[in-house]
């Protein structure tokens, strides 16, 4: 049984350097009712992690150095 609050959206943080992939993923997850933040690099992703507290992180494993 799922006891989550329907008013609180689950959060996803997408860290992906390719803009088109970020846009597609963000649009799809938002349409499914998730709260989504995106960034193009790991350094910014770490900053967002501190205040966003995502339930899931989608991380590009081949990010360029920042």
Write the layout of secondary structure elements.
Layout: E1 11-15, H1 19-31, E2 35-39, H2 42-52, E3 56-59
Work out the strand percent: 15-25%
What count of helical segments does DSSP give?
2
Give the low-pLDDT segments. none
Distance between the termini: 43 Å
Largest beta sheet: strand ordering:
2-1-3
Given the helix and strand composition, which structural class is it? alpha/beta
Task: Say how many strands there are.
Answer: 3
CATH class: Alpha Beta
Which series of helices and strands comes N to C? EHEHE
Shape label: flat
Q: At the third CATH level, what is the topology name?
A: Rossmann fold
Secondary structure: helix percent = 25-40%
Q: Strand count, sense and closure of the main sheet? A: 3 strands, parallel
What is the residue-mean pLDDT, rounded to a whole number?
89
Structure description:
The chain is an alpha/beta fold. It has a single domain (11-59), classed as Rossmann fold, CATH 3.40.50. The protein is built from 2 helices and 3 strands. It has helices at residues 19-31, 42-52, and strands at 11-15, 35-39, 56-59. Strand 1, helix 1 and strand 2 form a beta-alpha-beta unit. The chain is flat, with a radius of gyration of 13 Å.
What are its keywords?
66 residues; alpha/beta; Rossmann fold; 2 helices; 3 strands; flat
Kindly summarize this structure in a few lines.
36% of the residues lie in helices and 21% in strands.
